[in-house]
Amino acid sequence: MDSFANLLDGFATALTPTNLLVAAIGVVLGTAIGVLPGIGPAMAVALLLPVTYGLDPTAALIMFAGIYYGGMFGGSTTSILLNTPGETTAVVAAIEGNPMAKRGRGPQALAAAAIGHFAGGIIGTILLVLLAPLVASLAVDIGAPDYFAVMVLAFIAVTSVLGKSRIRGYASLLIGLTIGLVGLDQMTGQARLTFGSLHLAEGVDIVIVAVGLFAVGESLWVAAHLRHTPDKAIPVGRPWLGKADLARTWKPWLRGPFIGFPFGAIPAGGAEIPTFLSYVTEKRLSRHKDEWGKGAIEGVAGPESTASSSAAGTLVTMLTLGLPTTAVAAVMLAAFQQYGIQPGPLLFERESALVWGLIASLFIGLVLLLVINLPMAPVWAKLLRIPRPYLYAGILFFAGVGAYAVGGQVLDLLILFAIGVLGFAMRRFGMPVLPAIIGVILGPAAEQQMRRALQISDGDLTGLVNSPMAVTVYVVVALILAWPLVRKLVKRRAEPRVPV
Predict the structure, then answer these.
(1) Is 391 a member of any domain?
(2) Is the CB of residue 154 less than 8 Å from the CB of residue 440?
(3) What angle, rounded to 10 degrees, do the helices at 352-373 and 106-140 form?
(4) Would you say residue 497 lies in a domain?
(5) Domain span holding position 70
(6) What is the rounded distance in angstroms from the CA atom of residue 220 to the CA atom of residue 420?
(7) What are the CA-CA distances from residue 456 to residues 105, 143, 145, 301, 460 (Å)?
(8) Label partner for 249 (CA 20 to 30 A): which of 84, 184, 227, 335?
(9) Pick from 78, 390, 391, 107: which is nearest to 236 by CA?
(10) pLDDT 10s digit of each residue in the chain, 500 long?
């Protein structure tokens, strides 16, 4: 009951006219900046950090929270409409959202994403209020073997359900893992696949890889087929979700938070793994198997709800342990520190008004996000009416701007277009793009956690399976790998034998 009393006090703080205005500005800025490929919410918060020096701490952090959620939805907008993820958490939205947009259902995909963000964020924030101390205490006990096992699960689960061939899926994953090796070994400092370039010593930024494989690869693919296919304007369609759409999306909206929030609360977690797992879960549970890959609305609703709830989960470890699990959380931690505030176990006691005002502003920001962006869905979807030569030229321009903004180096542009050519080749040979993205995002982290676990066990391989959680996850991995074979055997036995 103390939590709810404190939350009511937080609403009294967050509902002042000044803080409401600051939250609205944050949501609008976050959405606008999130639309630009490569310039996600983390960069937006970092750029606005000096601007907030004149604001009081509560107003500054409320603005950052609005930018966080707005940026996530902005990234999903271009991911759905243009197959150009604004940030890594929006990668999964492109898989089903972009085919929906091409079928004239862009507004429905955007509405499913907006409501998913709202539902996931509201449920995630409620869980933040109720479970922050408990989740934080459990997260501290999760070790390197557990992290590695969960990442292996993400590799296997997503790669197994994408594409027509498992071999091509694993080949795509291998490409991503190879790109993830570029740079300095974090544990030994040894340069790997840098070819003598100091710039590559920092590795290839995931934003460049995602934008290259999706946006540039898609643009090259469209350009290659432009002469062979008529250039028809894609219809915008109805602006709201129908009864059939609501019947298919309400369960993914509610399932997403219970996948995303725990992963967000785990130190070194984030929204990438749970959005991938949410996609796999919804595909397994869907009754519309034939629509997956062609525009299944569940594939937008579930991952977007998961991503939003994961954002609430990241605040658990940031506020209670002082551990940022995402780039945005790291910048917000810097914002706390610039005001002389140190997040940790005593933060809720020492800065109660600020913390609960921030948590209350999350609810307000989510309502503002829905109110502002839901009516805008048809407007955003009209981007698809632009003739394809101009549309994809614009995509290439903004992709180049986003890539250059990452590091300010011309080499980043060359890497972007080299990866774009790779994305074109992958489409040509029927290889799914998502496993490559997973490999780049999770590969370095999985390697680090594996080596850390082996160091703790003095090189003994049993160190990878020395916890109940790791064993449980590996059992799930084994079931996923064995399921197709078991299904074939059961199918063969069930077939009636024809007498000779």
Answers:
(1) yes
(2) no
(3) 160
(4) no
(5) 2-489
(6) 8
(7) 51, 10, 10, 40, 9
(8) 84
(9) 107
(10) 577 777 888 888 888 888 888 888 888 887 777 666 555 666 666 666 666 667 788 888 788 788 877 877 777 787 787 777 766 677 788 888 888 888 878 788 888 888 888 888 899 888 888 876 666 556 566 778 887 887 788 777 766 655 567 788 888 888 988 988 888 887 777 888 888 787 788 888 777 887 788 778 878 887 777 655 555 555 555 556 778 888 888 889 999 888 888 877 765 455 677 888 888 888 888 888 778 878 888 888 888 898 888 888 888 777 776 666 666 776 677 777 777 777 776 777 777 788 888 888 888 888 888 888 777 766 766 666 677 677 778 778 877 877 777 677 888 888 888 998 998 998 888 888 878 877 887 788 788 888 888 888 888 888 888 888 888 888 888 887 787 777 777 777 766 655 55
Would you say 66 and 365 are in contact if contact means Cβ atoms under 8 Å apart? yes
Residue with tokens 């914002």: 335
Distances in whole angstroms, Cα of residue 10 to Cα of each of 16, 62, 315, 362, 498: 11, 11, 16, 11, 72
Cα Rg of the chain, angstroms: 23
Contact 303, 109 (CB under 8 A): no
Q: How would you label 66-79 residue by residue, b for 16+ Cβ within 10 Å and e otherwise?
A: bbbbbbbbbbbbbb
**Is 500 inside any structural domain?**
no
What's the N-to-C CA distance of the chain in angstroms? 74
Quote the CA–CA distance of 437 and 469 in Å, as a whole number.
Answer: 26
Q: How many domains does the chain have?
A: 1
